[in-house]
Every structure is written in structure tokens, then in C-alpha cells.
Amino acid sequence: xxxxxxxxxxxxxxxxxxxxxxxxxxxxxxxxxxxxxxxxxxxxxxxxxxxxxxxxxxxxxxxxxxxxxxxxxxxxxxxxxxxxxxxxxxxxxxxxxxxxxxxxxxxxxxxxxxxxxxxxxxxxxxxxxxxxxxxxxxxxxxxxxxxxxxxxxxxxxxxxxxxxxxxxxxxxxxxxxxxxxxxxxxxxxxxxxxxxxxxxxxxxxxxxxxxxxxxxxxxxxxxxxxxxxxxxxxxxxxxxxxxxxxxxxxxxxxxxxxxxxxxxxxxxxxxxxxxxxxxxxxxxxxxxxxxxxxxxxxxxxxxxxxxxxxxxxxxxxxxxxxxxxxxxxxxxxxxxx
Length: 337
Description:
The chain is an alpha/beta fold. It has three domains: about 1-85, no CATH class; about 90-130, no CATH class; about 150-325, 2-Layer Sandwich (Nucleotidyltransferase, domain 5), CATH 3.30.420. Helix content is about 40%, strand content about 15%. It contains twelve helices and eight strands. Strand 4 (about 165-175) and strand 5 (about 180-185) form a beta hairpin. The radius of gyration is 36 Å and the shape is elongated. It starts with a helix and ends in an 11-residue tail after the last helix.
């Protein structure tokens, strides 16, 4: 009580603000005599008063430190009583400069700039200042995925032309930063690229419409292998294919290797085309996609087909069955003696 009374007299004399709002330095309008008196008499009483007022709310930290709204109040030790201001302000300044940093990186920056502060103390200040950011995590769907490993390309390989079509998406960007979502459909047996279409977005209805155009000139496949994307396993495409007698083979979730043929094509697509081409917009991407698809099917030798082009190999598959029997190894692979 004596401390509070003595501080009240000094506060009335110097018209001081509340202790919790007082910075480390005395008010700027003080005269040199007032500043000297402030440093010798007022500051120790102010610190003790702040300590007493906030002791019920503050948590005791290692080394006798306690947390105040605007400053750290240090009692004891060889240096006596003092106020160490500025840590919250320094943290806010770093957060404004690096808005995506966490408290550990902010602590490292504080230490690098000369602050002697504990990581746990920075964490407490971080939470007290409301700087903790919510990490956005992708919501997992509660439904059961229809895919299974029994539908992998190893356990159920293609046995002929139009036996299995495999499909998936791959993404890229335009020169202005716009999103390009590419749908690719590949015949697993002949390795022909049947569909390569970019768009800003593709829904299940869009995929069904593209499949309808493909079926119009290619014919119906026996099955379609895909992942568990909503565009493929959703009702728009899945129910339509099932009603036409086409089996939908969805592979296990998070198992791209089970749909290996289209993943292999995407690696070639990105290496030979997407990473080497600039797209102005969707229309430009569609025009260049047609050129790449034509070259891939008719010009580029495929190592899995004995370095025939997919179109050349597909031509052998269309021959009558009597002609096929003459070709013991239509894919051009070496046979064991």
C-alpha cells in the first residue's frame, strides 16, 4: 500500500499515465531534472507497482520473469529491478514482414537480431498476442472410396485394343498464371493418346461429354481405369458407363502406381511438352495439345512397342485374326530362346 501511495503522489506530480501503458523511457516533455529524478526514484516504484498489480494474472517464468501486457518485468538478480520493453513490438514487426513465419522462425530472427529470449517465452507471447494461425488442412471426404488394388494395371492388364482405357488429370499454368487442367485418356494396349484436352476447370459432366465424343469415333471400351477423383467415380460418368456395359476400374486411393500407364504418359507429357511450352490461354493450349497428340501417336517411337509408333502398332491390331497369328510378337519385344 505504501508503494501505491508513493507512486500516486509521483504520478500526480508528473501527470504520469497508467503503469501498464508506460514505456521504458520517461515522457518526452520531461526536463533533465525530472528525467534524473524519474530514473532514480520513479522507475523502481513503477516496476514494483506493476509487479504487484499483475502478479495475480501473470505466470512466473524461469529466472524470475513475469509477463505484462506491454513489457517484461524483471525482479531480482545483480542488475536489480528493470523493465525490458519491446519484445511484443519486435515480434509484431517481424510478423508483419514475414506473415507466414511460425513462432520458431520468429524466435530465430529475434536471436539473430540480438535479443536474448527463450523459445518458450516467445511461444507464450505468440499466443497472448493472438498470432497463432490456423493451418488449413484438406478435408477428407467421409464417404468410402470405391477404388481397390484388385483393379490395378498389374492384376488386370489390357489384352487388346479398346480393352482398357486409362484416364487421369494433370495440371499446368498459362503465361499469365491461370490454371490449366488437362484430361488425358490413353489406350493401355496400343498406348495411343485418345484425349488430351486442357481447360480452366473440368467437372464430371465435362468428362462425360468428352468420353461421349471419343466413343463416337473410337467405339466402346470394355473397361475404364481411373483413380478416385470425383470427376471419374461420380454419378455423371460412373453411372453412364455402367449403363452402357463398361466396367469402371477405380484403383486404390493414393496409389498412382496402380494406374501406371497414364502416369507414365504424364511423365513424358510434362517432360517433353508442358515444361517446354508457353501457353497464352486455354485456346492456345488446345491448339498445341492437338499438335503434340498427333506427333505422339504418329511420329514418336514408343519403347514399349518395340519402337513403333502407337498408330503403327494399332494398325497391326486391326488386321484380321489370320494375319495376327503370323506375327508371333506384335509388340516387337525379344522372346526368350
